[in-house]
Each structure stands twice: as C-alpha cells, then as structure tokens.
Amino acid sequence: MLHLAQVIQTDPGGKVKLQLLAQQKAEHAWVVLAHEDGILWCDADYHPGALVLLELSPTKQVQHISDATGWVLEIVEQYLSLGITPAILQEEVQRAEQWRQSLTLQSQELGRRALEVEARRDQIQELEENLKIERQRLEGTAAELKNSDPATD
C-alpha cells in the first residue's frame, strides 16, 4: 500500500524516522492520516524534512522507499498549474451528482411512460379482440337473418 511520509529524524546507524502523512486508497484518491496514525523507522538515507513515498506491506513493513519530489512536481504540473483547486473539484462533484440525479429522474420518467404505453397497448389489443368478436357476432346475426328472411330467397 502506497503512503506519503516525511522524514522527521535520522540516526547515525543509517535509520530514518518517518511520519506517515497520507495513504493511497485508489489510483487518484488519497486520504490524509491523523498525526498519531504512524511513525516508522526504516533503513534509508534521507535528510529530515524530506518527503518520501513508501510501499508498505499489510504488516506496515517498508517494502520500498523513494524520494517524493518527482511525484509532488507531477501533481503540481498536472493539477495546480491548470488552476484546479479544491473548490473547483467540489463544484465538479456537485455538478456530477446533480447530473446523476437528473438522469435517475429521467430514467424513472421513461420507465413510467413505458408502463403507460404498455397498458395502452394492452387496452388496444383488448378492444381489437372485442371488435373482432362483435364483428363475428354481427356477421353471424346477419347470416341468420339472411337465412330466415323469405324475401331474400
């Protein structure tokens, strides 16, 4: 699991004390960790104040450590140089949520209309069947009248 950490202390034995700052939850989603969430010691050669990226095992053992400078600069280049701010991102989240709700309402309306059309189709089919029966009845009555009327012979 990838973490962002800051070197807070070094010792002469080649170990550094790291404060975990953030944890990656998904490719572009991170969560800031509480200050008391993690202090680690590991073998590395970084100066106090340096930001590092850590790959941690599930048991919080450091599997890989690297300088975070390039990663931070990439974030600045990709997001901050474009003027993307947290407020803009929040607006986009709200706009996406409104769009999702609008689509949900439209989908519900289309479903309702489809049910109405289906009910009307069923009514029309029933009326057609009734008309067919009535036509057959009238044709039968007409045939009976024709057969029973001596004037038509």
Concise account of the structure shown:
The chain has 153 residues and is an alpha+beta fold.
Features:
single chain, 153 residues, six-stranded antiparallel sheet, alpha+beta
What report would you give on this structure?
By secondary structure, the chain is an alpha+beta fold. The chain folds into two domains: 2-82, no CATH class; 85-153. It is built from two helices and six strands, in the order E-E-E-E-E-E-H-H. Strands 1, 2, 3, 4, 5 and 6 form a six-stranded antiparallel β-sheet that branches. The termini are far apart.
> What is the CA-CA span between the terminal residues?
100 Å
Mean pLDDT: 89
Number of helices: 2
Largest sheet: 6 strands, antiparallel
Indicate the radius of gyration in whole angstroms: 38 Å
SS class: alpha+beta
Uncertain runs are none
Count the E strands. Answer: 6
Listing every helix as H and every strand as E from the N terminus to the C terminus, the arrangement reads: EEEEEEHH
Helix content: 40-55%
- Compute the number of structural domains: 2
> So what's the overall shape?
rod-shaped
Q: Beta fraction of the residues?
A: 25-35%
Layout: helices, strands, pairs:
Layout: E1 2-10, E2 15-26, E3 29-32, E4 39-43, E5 51-56, E6 62-67, H1 69-78, H2 86-148
Antiparallel strand pairs: 1-2, 1-5, 2-3, 2-4, 5-6
